[in-house]
Amino acid sequence: CFYQVKIWNLTKRQCIRTIQAHEGFVRGMCARFCGTSFFTVGDDKTIKQWKMESPEYGEEEEPIHTILGKTVYTGIDHHWKEPVFATCGHQVDIWDEQRTSPKCSLTWGFDSISSVKFNPIETYLLGSCASDRNIVLYDMRKSTPLKKVILNMRTNTLCWNPMEAFIFTAANEDYNLYTFDMRFLESPVMVHMDHVSAVLDVDYSPTGKEFVSASFDKSIRIFPVDKGHSREVYHTKRMQHVITVKWTSDNKYILCGSDEMNIRLWKANASEKLGVLAPREKAAMNYNQKLKEKFQFHPQIRRIAQHRHLPKSIYCQIKEQRIMREARRRKELNRRKHSKPGSVPFVPERKKHIVAVVK
């Protein structure tokens, strides 16, 4: 049984090409930096490179290259400037496009690695997430791991900020997202808390000011990088667990793929009008935006701006988690009150979830 890769025309909302790619699940996909081809990895232990353009009339749909590996690959990412790509599975392998064996293999610990991502600015840096709760950073030039941070729960994937070289955001099983500065891994720069189930994917906007997250709680949320709570939540009645999410390069749309086998296209700014705007329309929108910014701290304006309708399940879980957080806080206060001074230290929220940093 072959598992397919489909290529879509978004303007026409049509599938323009279907490729019988792998004998087993397709675990990862990435485009080459020039956009002329793309790579896929699957459960059949192969890495395949495909042309982005459809084959000519009479031509068969065949990969440009096929590399047969030794283990199952769970993810793939391409270098932003060179003909080099990285795969992950039992270890992180760095491949040259012209060779059928990896240039080097990187490992730190012994566990399955779920995702690997190249840094878009410092292109020789890459990060990976493993199922033993580690986030490991590597330097391609040295062929060695740099640092490792261990969290309380497993990190599913990470995404580098396209505008700030050292900043990355990790999507975690404990319902939170953590924005780290790779130079100071002892505590995250920001903890983003709004989801009520495991966060499965994250992707940055091309401006680097916001990112979008996909969760097991059947919703996607848009977070500003410097805020702990989301500015927007998207959901529909039919959408099930959201597995993957992508922010388009024109900063206008968000794509998500979910369990019920649908791809959805969302506006990055929900109230934005699509299509050509008349000059007066544009001026009115800018004026209204400035008014909102001017009066953003007025109680009624703030309530309207922040209010979002949520599905009943998410709404009830948020209430429940708020009660649980308050109970934990009260318990800690009581323990501190009835203990010797200094024996129960104050631990900031940012440091609570970090187990250790290994260099």
From TrEMBL:
Origin superkingdom: Eukaryota
Record-linked SUPFAM superfamilies: WD40 repeat-like (SSF50978)
Subcellular location per the Swiss-Prot or TrEMBL entry: Nucleus, Nucleolus
Pfam families found in the cross-reference section: Sof1 (PF04158), WD40 (PF00400)
Main location: nucleus
Record key words, sorted: Nucleus, Repeat, Ribonucleoprotein, rRNA processing, WD repeat
The keyword Ribonucleoprotein is assigned to this record: yes
Family recorded in the similarity comment: Belongs to the WD repeat DCAF13/WDSOF1 family.
Protein name per its UniProtKB record: DCA13 factor
